[in-house]
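Objective 1b: paired records.
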Amino acid sequence: MIRRFLTGIGVLGACAMLAAWAVAPAFAQARDSAEAKAARRVNPDWKAPRTAWGHPDLEGTWTTDDMRGVPTSRPAQFGTRMYLTDDEFAARAQQRERARDTQDRGAAGTFRNEEGTRDFGYTSMVIDPPDGRVPAQTAAARARPRDSSSFGVGPWEKVQDFSLYDRCITRGLVGSFGPAVYGNGARFIQTPDSVIITYEMIHDTRVIPLDNRPHVGKGLQLWMGDSRGRFEGDTLVVDTTNFTDRTTVGGAKHSAELHLTERFTRVDPDMIDYENTVNDPATFVRPWTMRMTITQQPDYEIYEYGCHEGNLAMRHALMAERAYEKAAAEAAAKGLPPPERVFERVNGPDRAR
């Protein structure tokens, strides 16, 4: 089909059209958006810095704080449009500025309600399928039990009733990069034969070999999967398999067959474009890709994330559950109905247990 197309319009015409397609997104982007001002967008000849051994340099502390204003799935009114118009972007910039007024702008490091410093004009993080929305889940995925969290209403019988996030175990590979209300940083370290990424929240660390070694055997499943990397030009491509079936992506608990392909491309001294393609036929009806631009922030520091040490949510929820059970037993001994539960008021008494 491509050969017939080229024959019809001529090679020179095809080259001109392909060149126009290559630069078309620049005209679709809001002029004042951070992505339009990236060094590679402004100057196509811009070269990413290199390490001493010649790999593209990704080292440093990066964060997804600037993505806080971008929805994961695209609102329907934008259709297949990937970027805001100038007017739409101006409205978002005003909204983000109001959000930044809620944080301590003089603070450095991890504080609640971090909002970043740049505004991006992306209509969604999901860029494929074309409608920018996470694809539908399969029937098998919809039937899987969902984890509760401490933001729910219980009831809480045991530690295992809480999510892996609540239990300070992991947020999963995709979830570990937020963007959440705090802790969206990651530290990248490089050696000639590996890339190491340490995520700020729950401090998961991935060691990604670059030496062409095969993946571990299929019988071994890991919270963050088993990653293998390679450089394609300026892009670090990471292939990850061997997941458990206990973490989530795109709002769904995925299967152990999940296969992720990540692409990290430095497009500016302070920006890396990050794309992640999710392929899990047991969970989603088609593969899909999300894109975030991770950035460096002035004076951003990553401190120790003492998750277990300050993790009182589960303890308090379980204590409250035991207190309710005691109160219910005392009421029953007196021939009285049990105390009202918040869970019943929210979900109805037939779902209280």
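Objective 1b, second protein:
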Amino acid sequence: MNLATFRRTGAEVRTPVWFAAVDGKIYLFTAGESGKVKRLRHSSRARVAPSDMRGRVRGVWWDVAARIVTEPRVIERAHTALRAKYGWQMRLGDLFSRLTGRMERRAWIEIEV
């Protein structure tokens, strides 16, 4: 999936992301200090579109509302869904994140379509 967030100038910034759907919402994670987190702190305005593994858009863009999630229960549900969807790749990423200290600095994002 491709996630587009918006700078203060209105310029769109597109990023391919891993995601998982839970109860009609889409969840993803990113580095806590990433640009998309900074942009979402300013505005919940975002867009999503299906894409291939390389981030090439393969469908229609949808306007959505996105927010940074801080509730541990929601984060755990999102993390469980991502592990179920991506399997060993997610577990390997988690291992490296723990070893490098990045696991605690992750930001979790919830998207309402």
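The chain has a mean pLDDT of 95. Helices lie at 35-42, 72-86, 88-100.
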